């Protein structure tokens, strides 16, 4: 039981959104079937069943047009954040890391760790593919979903044309039609708006406990920082000189030996006769009885 709980806790985000996806897809199928049957009854035709609706072009085009827009959003986001930044946003990387970065920064090739995937260590085309695997898989799913939308869309469009005694279109003609681009752009504009708002809102707004919020600390200006350092009695080290080599000692510097206190005199030394010293000429009254 503890192993199951640990698995659910470690994969809670993906499992939760997977469950929401299935529930939303089931709700879309049920509501879409109800809408189609209402239209069928209005035209005097018999209603369709759930299996027939799930395999119809009408349901396929509605699902595919949403999938392609979502994966286009993540595909563009993954590649755009390599070169574009939004200062102060946790959705963006720092300005000094713009670009592809080095293998050392990305832990690729000979800089990979022991726990890194195998393709991250081998080098060559495998490491090059692994370094771009996230964007490639997002682009592949986007193109396949867009292709499925076009195929299912032309089938659904021709079914409506034939029911209205119109002329059907070929797949190439449908790609240039207003129906195809209306379905496409109405999803793209919403995705671009959402991701842009997320990038800019995260600069100024806060969500407690969420990793999408980046804690921002107030930076002290350099002149103010130097005054505070001097007032506290701290001395800043001088900046390193470019091109200058740091001198290294040829042998390790020996630490100074600790000064040990002198040992206490023994009792035999204290009870010894004080002959040959200046205390021997003391008067008898000072001696012990």
Describe this structure in words.
- By secondary structure, the protein is mostly helical.
- About 55% of the residues lie in helices and about 0% in strands.
- It is built from twelve helices and no strands.
- Helix 4 crosses helix 10.
- The N and C termini lie far apart (about 90 Å).
List keywords for this structure.
289 residues, elongated, mainly alpha, 12 helices
Largest sheet: none
- Please give the radius of gyration in angstroms: 39 Å
> Structural class from helices and strands?
mainly alpha
Measured between the Cα atoms of the first and last residue, the distance is 90 Å
Give the low-confidence spans. 274-282, 284-289
Query: How large is the count of helical segments?
Result: 12
Note the beta-strand portion. Answer: under 5%
- H and E order: HHHHHHHHHHHH
Helical content, roughly?
Answer: 55-70%
Mean pLDDT: 80
- What overall form do the CA principal axes indicate? elongated
What is the total tally of β strands?
Answer: 0
